[in-house]
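Final report, results section. Input specification for complex C-07:
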Amino acid sequence: MILEVATLQIKEGQSTNFEAAFSLAKEIIAASPGHISHELQKCVEDKNKYLLLVQWETIEAHEIGFRKSEPYLKWKALLHHFYDPFPTVEHFELIHTSV
Amino acid sequence: MILEVATLQIKEGQSTNFEAAFSLAKEIIAASPGHISHELQKCVEDKNKYLLLVQWETIEAHEIGFRKSEPYLKWKALLHHFYDPFPTVEHFELIHTSV
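Structure output:
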């Protein structure tokens, strides 16, 4: 299992619109093969900053299965115009969990 | 509920020692009032980078209850010498989850 962490910086004044667009876009990522779960978190210290945390079965499920898919074009159209700068994305492996 | 996200950059060659120290330190944070759960994630793209994700009942449980506590001195002694630079820490509120 792989955790994708995308740091999203939203253009000033666009956070409400971004959240509305995300509520549509989330169905796209949730339907992608290898998607396990995801959450959208909003930063307390910076109201224009969000984290998208996605659990994938493998990195390939994210980088190839999702990003090279037809539905990803709709995801991009819904979300990418909100970002400035473009998001940084990294992948993580679980070392320890308390639960 | 609040998610603390600490981005940890570990000194070159120290990641095994850091993980061993964390396996001791985790008992300290787990015992802190208001701690709900935590996980340590290791970056795939940067072997010296980790994310510590902690669910707290409130920000105060983290910033006051944990950081101003006596056991935090032991946490610091176990972990802080591994970091370079010193970690960035932010707090997040859940906007949406698929589970």
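Chain A has one domain: 7-86. The mean pLDDT of chain A is 97. This concludes the modelling results for the funded period.
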